[in-house]
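Sequence, structure tokens reproduced for reference:
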Amino acid sequence: MPSEETERGLQYFKDIIESGKTLRLSEPRQVNQGYAYLIEVKAGHKEWHFSLSRDQINDLPGTKAYHAPANALARSLEKRFGNIDPNLFVTHDGLLLQIDIEWPPSPWMTPNGIAAASGVWVSISDRINNSLTKCIVQMTHQQTMPGSESNPYARPAHIINTVRSNVDSGTVKFYANSREFPAGFQPTRMQVGSYFASPPSIQDYLVNKVWSLGFMAGTGEKGTTAWIADPWDAEYLGCSSADLKRAAAVLDAQEKISLRDDGEFASVGKVLLASGGPAKAMPEARKPTFRTALSEYVPKKTLGEGGSGKVLLVSDNDGNDFALKYLKPDVHTEQKNKRFRNELAFCTRNTHSNIITIEDNGLANIEGVDVPFFVMPVFPQTLRSLMQKKSPPEKLLLLFADVLNGIEHAHNSLIWHRDLKPENILVTGDEERAVVTDFGIAHFDDEYLHTIVDTMPQERLANFRYAAPEQRSKGEVDQRADIYALGLILYEIFTGQLLQGTQHRKIGTINPNYLHLDPIVESMTCQSPGDRLAAISLIREMLLANSAVGMSELLRKRFDHEATPTRSGTNKPPLATAQYDKKDTALRLDSFVRPHPDMLGTFTFETSVGEVSHGTERQVAARFIETDRRLQDEGFTRMNWSNLSGKRLFDL
């Protein structure tokens, strides 16, 4: 029999669930020897399952941090039951998934028998392709604590979105039936809250949702509706419920969907019915043409997409591959255009090997709108992908040192990135160099400011998962917000988890060789900016002073690689740059070609080891190419090369 405290908690939860018109809560069933309760929510023939531990139920009435998410869960379920099935979800790519979570969570034990986390089995059925699979979603105990981002009542949304994202990113393999599961089938394991996929436009997602959920799952019934303003979808897409409603209104005007009068639910519109689905209703647009004075760039595939920009893999006239980023026409506002041009101006002038360089730029007409674009080197992987494939922590720490180099260079130029995350850190194919990218929402000092953007210091723009507390609360933001994000990234490299709460697991308990990183992370992630480390140089000093001798020496070479330039203002932007590294040695060398600061028509060639010569543009170009060949003959490897002038005489 439940205790009086548990009875009170169950009744409290029942009152919340049944406060609407449709949902009913069945008698909760005790599981796990009475330590948890299986919750079954019903409405007609539809049902949805969930579980809560006895302690979570007992805490509900008196824990204010639980009240809002419990009510939000109830309201979300009430709307979700208005769909054909509350367990059906649509992915970015338009898959219709039935996601069944096998409650309650099971404890996950460390080798020494300590319960460090819990996880749930999830069964996934692809209703369009008639395939299925199973996976495991893991969560830490901290993610179930009151006030955390993933408390028990918010947990279903986080689990569902984690599964959808991993399906979109291709990490989950489907099978025709359970008999085709291979011997020793190893389910995909994922950490709750790990959303990796890049979303399409909100309108594309909604069209797929209404068609897949409202028409296909509704067995072709024209009146079957899909809920539009779903906060689980909004979190998944990185937008708001209001954004979903605005996108739905546009689609309604285009007759692709048909909104109900209240704007909450939509059925398939005339255009979709006439054409047989979203793929035919929205024929593929003519591929945009990206031309500059130097080359034409032909799109090959999409590499990624965010709220404002899209990144393509392109090839130039000579067949060389590049990454091309352009501002999407549907968000081509004055503010976003200014931000894009500021990012272009800064990265074009950049010569630091740990910050992305821009090699060409121009305007392209897409959907009748002239949008800016720029061309960058293409990198095959990100820090996130290396973390996912469990690269050695020693290698990741050296790449993290590269990130510190790049961000310190930006900070010394009074530039705050404000959106640091593993996805924005690119890595070379040999995993020897990391490059910071995506300065789209950065704060720029006047020297690098191409155009004024009306952004208040407290404006919140960043990805919420790595945002500092002052960004979440819309406080004043400076370089210390970047240091907070870097602390989260450093912690995640060694634990595989995002740091949450004060009782998080220590790095030293996972890898005793890196016990010294715990106080560094703590100093970087203080809640108050005033208590936080204020400069990258302090992080560097702590790493060098506390690392083991061998690692300290490797880090020292990494940090010495890139001297932080001063802001004298005497040097003009380079026309061409190259960076070289001699394998198995600490030897590194950079070369530059730039206009002479004082003599018109004269150019300067220089290297980081003090070689300097002046001459005509052709003379210094010849010296640039000659040095490249000499260094490679001497055993150096060219790590990076940028022809910012666009002139062929600087091609290597």
Observations:
- The two ends are 78 Å apart (CA to CA).
- Residues 576-650 form one domain.
